[in-house]
Design a protein that fits this description.
Elements (H helix, E strand, L loop, with lengths): L1 H7 L1 H12 L1 H9 L11 H16 L4 H6 L2 H29 L4 H17 L1 H7 L15 H17 L7 H22 L7 H11 L22 H21 L1
Helix pairs in contact: 2-4, 2-8, 3-7, 6-7, 6-9, 6-10, 7-9, 9-10
């Protein structure tokens, strides 16, 4: 169908890859009423991203992908990506402050979009490839990179507004170390659980009354070994007893 054609189209694949790589620039430009295609003016970055895209998808025998599937190299690339995330957040906040002086929400939003644009724009990127997965909306269920980028945007906005008593380079160092260590740990342990999960559960219960799914109530949800509940068994026994009494009366 049309979806398969769009998925297999090299042009659609390339454009979706560019959206994922430069999604932060696109989103931040839209927020600040700037041309969303401004990232195309950076020919060197486009050429580098296009080269990586071509080697990943069209290199013979998947040689390029297999090289980067080597764990130490993957850890190195993941660490470098987290370092660039910090720079993107700070650059987005400074850019937003130049347009809207001391506008906290604008700085947080633009810094968040600049640092996690690839995740926030993922639904539009999927549409370009002919795929629609609304359940993957990052605003409905945030992934760890989007969450940690939002926290970083808030922290750097407070520091930029001089409400956080810490030097900018010290905050960048501490935040980057946290990003790299947490990312490497999650990759080594192959864990998809966010480090913020316990804090999120506690805050959700405290402020919004969110609770875990209640356990099965005794007498109502307790099930037998064959999968039938206690209530179901009691009702079946009652019906069997009624049938037997009716049979005796007819006899």
């Amino acid at each position: 169908g049309a979806a398969e054609v769009s998925v297999r189209s090299p042009i659609a694949c390339w454009f979706s890859a560019m959206l994922y790589c430069f999604g932060g620039s696109v989103l931040s430009s839209l927020m600040l009423a700037e041309p969303p295609i401004a990232f195309l003016a950076k020919g060197t970055n486009i050429l580098l991203a296009s080269s990586v895209w071509y080697l990943v998808f069209y290199c013979p025998q998947d040689t390029f992908y297999r090289c980067f599937a080597f764990l130490p190299l993957r850890l190195l690339v993941a660490g470098m990506k987290e370092v660039t995330r910090t720079w993107k957040i700070t650059a987005g906040i400074a850019h937003a402050d130049s347009h809207f002086k001391d506008a906290w929400l604008v700085m947080v939003a633009v810094g968040w979009a600049r640092g996690a644009g690839g995740g926030l724009i993922s639904n539009f990127e999927q549409l370009v490839r002919g795929v629609w997965k609304p359940e993957t909306n990052e605003l409905l269920k945030m992934s760890y990179p989007v969450k940690v980028t939002l926290i970083g945007a808030v922290l750097f906005t407070l520091q930029h507004s001089q409400y956080l008593p810490i030097a900018r380079h010290n905050l960048m160092f501490l935040y980057t170390v946290f990003l790299v260590v947490s990312k490497v740990t999650m990759m080594l342990t192959r864990s998809a659980t966010s480090p913020f999960a316990p804090i999120e559960a506690a805050l959700g219960h405290m402020f919004f009354g969110l609770q875990k799914t209640p356990s099965k109530v005794k007498g109502e949800g307790a099930t037998s070994s064959n999968g039938s509940s206690v209530c179901d068994r009691s009702s079946e026994q009652h019906r069997d007893g009624v049938k037997k009494r009716q049979a005796k009366k007819t006899e």
